[in-house]
Amino acid sequence: MTPPDPASDPVPTSHPRYLSLITREKITAGVTRGVTSLHGLIAHGRGEAFDYLLGEQTHPFASSAIAAAAATLLSASRPVISVNGNACALAAQDLVNLAAATGAALEVNIFHSSPERELAIRSMLLDHGAPEVLMPSRSHALEHIDHNRRWVHPDGIFSADAVFVPLEDGDRCGALIRNGKKVVTVDLNPLSRTARTASVTIVDNLVRCLPALVSLTRQLASSDRTSLAASAASWDNPAALAAAEAALRSGNLS
Ligand code: PTJ
């Protein structure tokens, strides 16, 4: 049976799970466009399960992490936003807006190696107004990782002091930290290696927290860099993860 075309058969806004369903439409459209891998659908499903248990809402531990993320990115000298196939499909416009608000470079970096998909991600970011999108370069590699993700752009992740990497793989998150970078991630699973290794983990859905992060970075854009750096340095990531895990285990979905 041919699946319905989302354009001619849209999800009704009255549906009680409208936001979740529309987000699924975005991720499947990402696969159709050649931006998202098939594995990305599985990763999305895992995220949905955690989001369901968190009541599909932004909790206080996530709002605090959003503030720490804004302080980290704005106080960095060379912030970079690392974009994979899921993040691009779900939030291309917000990623471009975040780059503009923080002065960060956008760089394509994917787990499942595919030069075609790297170009499709770049093209989608350019279509959403990115002035420039850096691509992985075979001339520069991160240390401490043997994987496609080690290839990075010399003016981007290679020389960054802070990297925003939503939906990251645990090995590379660890490698970025061991290369001396601060890592800000978004991961609905507070138990994942990425969540536990990053400097700042926002345990929230990317599609919910990114507009809030963009808005906050715009508000704080002219704040004193020293106070922002102090605020970022005082962030207690393990405490936020413990609060997220407690919320998951509470079983209270309201
Ligand atoms: O485009 P590529 O090749 O770089 O691949 C991207 C994926 C995401 C497929 C790849 O990085 C991967 O396999 O990731 P993992 O190891 O499955 O981790 C993804 C994490 O993101 C999991 O902990 C999910 O729970 C979480 N996640 C999934 N969707 C969301 C999410 N977190 C926040 N918001 C989401 N929408």
Describe the protein in words.
There is one protein chain. With 254 residues, the protein is α/β, with parallel strands linked by helices. It has one domain (60-247): Phosphopantoate/pantothenate synthetase (Rossmann fold, 3-Layer(aba) Sandwich). Helix content is 52%, strand content 8%. The chain has ten helices and five strands. The protein has helices at 18-33, 38-53, 60-75, 85-102, 115-127, 170-178, 193-197, 206-220, 225-233, 237-250; strands spanning 79-83, 105-108, 162-164, 182-186, 200-202. It has a five-stranded parallel beta sheet, sandwiched between helices. Helix 6 (170-178) links the parallel strand 3 (162-164) and strand 4. The longest helix is centred in the middle third of the chain and has 18 residues, at 85-102. It is globular. The mean pLDDT is 94. Residues 37, 39-40, 43-44, 46-47, 50, 84-86, 90, 110-112, 167, 169, 186-189, 192, 205-206 line the site of ligand PTJ.
Compact overview of the structure:
This protein has ten helices and five strands, in the order H-H-H-E-H-E-H-E-H-E-H-E-H-H-H.
